[in-house]
Amino acid sequence: MGKQAWQRITYFKTIMVWLAVVLLGIFYLSIRETYEPVRITAMPEAPRQGEPILVTFQLNNRGLSNFVTNYQFYVDGVLLKEGQASINPLSSKTYQYLYDSQVEIGQRVSFTVKTSSDVNNYEKIVSIPSFPPQVASSFISFASFSTTVMSSMATFTHYDGSFATGKGLNVGLVMSLCLILLLIFLELAGAAIEDANEGARFNGGIITLQRFKIRFSTLTGVLFIIFMGIVYTKIVLILSTT
Amino acid sequence: MSGMEHVLTSGAEISNRQSEVRRLQQSGLLIICIMAAIALCEYIFAYRNVAHGIVLSLALTLSLYIFLAVRKVEDGLTESVESLVLVPLYILFTSSLPWFFINQQYLLPAVYTCILGLCFLHIFQKELSLRDILGMPEKKRIIPYVLIGTIGIPLGLCEYLILRPAPFSPDFSIKYLLLNLFYMVFFVGLGEELLFRGLIQRNLTRLFGWKWGLVGTSLLFGIMHLTWRSIPELFFVFLAGLIFGYFYIRTGSLLTSILIHGVNNTVLVAVYPHVFNN
Q1: Do residue B30 and residue B77 come from a single domain?
Q2: Phi, psi of A61 (to 5 degrees)
Q3: Which of A10, A67, B56, B187 has the fewest CB atoms within 10 Å, counting from its CB?
Q4: Helices A156-163 & B75-96, crossing angle to 10 degrees?
Q5: Could you report the predicted ipTM of this complex, rounded to two decimals?
Q6: Which positions in chain B touch A212 (Cβ < 8 Å)?
Q7: A42-65, pLDDT tens digit by residue?
């Protein structure tokens, strides 16, 4: 292998490793953050005198079945909002409240969300101006893409509808079958090409087979990653039901 | 040269030109068919049935790979088709992974990390030069190129007036602005520009010339935004694609189109919603 080829492979591998690190890092952060059943953020972190505070609280359902919970929202211990929320499996519901009271500079305000359901009770408090760590990670998540497929593809309902249910076309099954066939093909083609190389037989069929092998390996890689996603989702679903 | 030889040479030239035109027509027809198939996949995915759209994308990818393996076509056309196959692969990636495990604020970096991986894999497999594709400018040109990126500000205003999106960040602060700018430039801008301008437009330009390369890529870029379900947005994205592609051709650097794209998206979701809502 020439020096240039070696450099090329090294650069490529380095880039791919970093991309994998980014993806795994994002995955780790997501798992860590969405574990909590309630998240609250208050903006701005240090309000000016009289400036309204936007409080966003998110009720998360990490379970498999539809989850109904009662919630109460308090500001400095005073109940301001309460209600009942029905949350789809592996989804969230976000509520916003604009707290328009006159807050003095440096005055501390505490926001509390309490949830109560048949399963458990939970309480989450956030105070400003002291810096709450979760503020750094608060967005009005993807509200801007609410009408697009971009947001729907990020929901469990979309994924479950296309990859898991027995109703209609099961994309997960189609992809898995396609992956199995491609893997068998690549295995057989690899052996045939190796045989031909040993015997120095290069006919049209072998060249075509080589072209197939090169192209299908990319698709197989993509399908394998998707398959891993399907397997991971299934494992999570099984673990959450037990 | 005698009169007879001159006539023979002219005849050969005409014949060559005719076969060249025929070759271009056939290549053009194939590319149009592939683009139409991608448009169909995207349309079904966005408007009809997500599952059918995904399976169609898979079928299209398989068909194109089989076609390239079985039929012996010229190198330029093979390169163009192979770069176009990245689009259905892009649809497969964005629609088939369990993104709901990812916190939504990290969704863009996560999705585009996969797209970048796909593009880098293609560049590595085809032994292309990333340096050539990116066209990194000389130091003295970096500031003018960054200034070109500000074209994204009025462009983003046009898109905002079409889509009127809700803000991407809870307030208009420098922290969120920089975070959005980082996401939009280094993930969305880099990923989409590398795919559309760096690979697809580059290959189509080599095959059909810069005008058709630019128009074809912009058309495909517009088609890939069908998911917004807005006709004015489609026209806007087509025009924006022409602008991104034009600057890529003029400067020879992907940096300009990445910056325009990134700035456009940043002001669209992190600046104008706050400015106009106030």
Answers
A1: yes
A2: -120, 105
A3: A10
A4: 110
A5: 0.84
A6: 65-66, 69
A7: 776 666 666 777 788 888 876 666
Q: Does B267 share its domain with B147?
A: yes
> Across the interface, do B120 and A15 touch by the CB < 8 Å criterion?
yes
Average pLDDT over residues B36-41: 93
Question: Which positions in chain B touch A171 (Cβ < 8 Å)?
Answer: 51, 54-55, 96
Last residue of a domain, one of B77, B96, B115: B96
Q: Which residue has the higher pLDDT, A64 or B247?
A: B247
Residue the block writes with tokens 């010229």: B74
Same domain? B215 vs B142: yes
b/e map of B140-159 (b: 16 or more CB within 10 Å)? eeeeebeebbebbeebbbeb
| Sites in chain A below the pLDDT cut of 50 | 130-152
Do B3 and B76 sit in the same domain of this protein? Answer: yes
Cα–Cα dist A145/A135, whole Å: 21
Is B119 inside any structural domain?
A: no
- B229 and A147: CB-CB below 8 Å? yes
pLDDT at A68: 84
Question: Count of domains in chain B?
Answer: 2
Residues B216, B260 within the same domain: yes
Whole-prediction pTM: 0.75
Domain that includes residue B74, residue range: 1-96
